[in-house]
Amino acid sequence: MTDDTTAPYVAVLGGGVMGETLLSALLGGGWTPERVEVTESAAVRANELASRYGVRTGASNAEAAARADVVLIAVKPNVVGSVLADVRDRLRTGALVVSVAAGLPLSFYESRLAAGTPVVRVMPNTPAVIGKGASAIARGTATEPGHLVLVERILDSTGLVVRVDEKDLDAVTAISGSGPAYAFYLIDAMAEAGVLLGLSRDLATRLAVATVEGSAALAAESGDHPVVLRERVSSPGGTTVAAVRELDAHGVRAGVVAAAQAARDRSRELGAAYSS
Ligand SMILES: NC(=O)C1=CN([C@@H]2O[C@H](COP(=O)(O)OP(=O)(O)OC[C@H]3O[C@@H](n4cnc5c(N)ncnc54)[C@H](O)[C@@H]3O)[C@@H](O)[C@H]2O)C=CC1
Ligand SMILES: O=C(O)[C@@H]1CCC=N1
Q1: What 3-state DSSP class applies to 117?
Q2: ipTM score
């Protein structure tokens, strides 16, 4: 928990899905609404965030950056360049720049900001909004250990936070950044299957959600290998081995691997496309 009066002032630039997630993480981690502001180019969305969280949302990127100890960039990768142009001459000496944008390398930021600006990349995910997220952070060339500690403090209420080298961030994006979508895809498919088998949609969805939630919790709490946990469900000659044989026959495992590779490749593409 952060002491309100000493909390660094944070400007979140971009109030979309991830900007709101980070905002709620900050407020959940002890920041008061007076120590956080959000810039958001869509006026309706800016007003929505202001009324929901009681934070200031009307300033320009440059104005917000000028009073911030931490500038947290949460716009789409194709907009990051223009946001950096907005803020580069307004950043306070020593201000930390943190970005959640997929793909864009630290060198993209460092080459566009004053020499020596500390930059940290974060790859969070949406379950952060309920404190069940998984985030990886990677440091830039001018960051001190204290900067990583500060980012960890900002992310404290979001769930798991791990430090990685930047070279691993495309893979992290493919597994935990995009990963919630794979889990929701599975939940949706299980619920749909339940409806096909005659359950009501409401019941099928509740069973699917509880099953995925419970399985993830069991894997986390037991520490057992997923294969061991799967074997424990699989009675000899029973229903589960019949089901898993179909998953294999339909290439579900290969599909997950291909999906992650595609996400990794897309992360690289985004970085290359907007770095030029
Ligand atoms: N959604 C997710 O699960 C994750 C997203 N990210 C990253 O977070 C970033 C934002 O993604 P989302 O929140 O999903 O997108 P989003 O489209 O929901 O949010 C972006 C927001 O930025 C606003 N915006 C656009 N131009 C602006 C400007 N010049 N100044 C201020 N605000 C501006 C938009 O109106 C929008 O509300 C991306 O770079 C993405 O790679 C990273 C991890 C997970
Ligand atoms: O889809 C995206 O590009 C972002 C990055 C990871 C999750 N969402």
Answers
A1: coil
A2: 0.99
